[in-house]
Amino acid sequence: MRFQGKIAAWFWGLVIFGSLMLLYTIWDIFQQGSWGELPAMILGFFLFHLLCIPILVCNYAEITEEKVIVHFGFFKESMELKEIREIYKTKNPISSTAASLDRIEIVGRRQSIICAVREREAFIQELKRRM
User: b/e string for 56-93 if b means 16 or more Cβ within 10 A?
Assistant: First the structure.
C-alpha cells in the first residue's frame, strides 16, 4: 500500500525562493557582464534543482507484506515490520526524509525512520494492522 508524502508550504517556499534568488543572480550577472561568474551560477542553479525536484516528485511511503519503505528523492529507507517497536506522531525538526514537520517516527530495534505522509492516521493504522 502506497501513501503520498506530505510537502509543507515552507518547503515549497524554500524551493521557490532558492530558484528565484539563483535566477535573479544569473540575470544580474548578464546585466553587469561578469561572464566569469556565469558558469558557476548556472551550475549552482542546476545542482539546486537536481536536489530539490526529486524530493518533490519522489516522496512517498510504501507498506509491503514484510517492510515499510520510505522514498524521499534519491534516498530510500526501509525497516522490516517485525522490527517495529513503536509508532508515533512527532514534530521533531531533526533532518530526515520528510518535507513537513507533521511527521511520523517509526522506531525499531536498531533504527528509526522519520517520514511525513498526507494521510497520517491511515498510514499509522495500516502499519499497526500489519505488525
Answer: eeebbbebeeeebbbbbbeeebebebebbeebeeeeee
- What pLDDT does residue 18 have? 95
**Whether the Cβ atoms of residue 60 and residue 3 lie closer than 8 Å to each other:** yes
pLDDT digits (tens, 9 = 90+) for 3-39: 999 999 999 999 999 999 999 999 998 888 888 888 9
What predicted TM-score, i.e. pTM, was given to this entire model?
A: 0.82
Sign of CA pseudo-dihedral 6, 76, 63, 111: negative
Regarding predicted confidence, which is higher, 70 or 96?
A: 70
Cβ atoms 38, 28 nearer than 8 A:
no
CA of 5: how far to CAs of 11, 69, 92, in Å? 13, 12, 16
Nearest to 67 by CA among 130, 124, 114, 112: 130
- Which cell is 42 given? 548556472
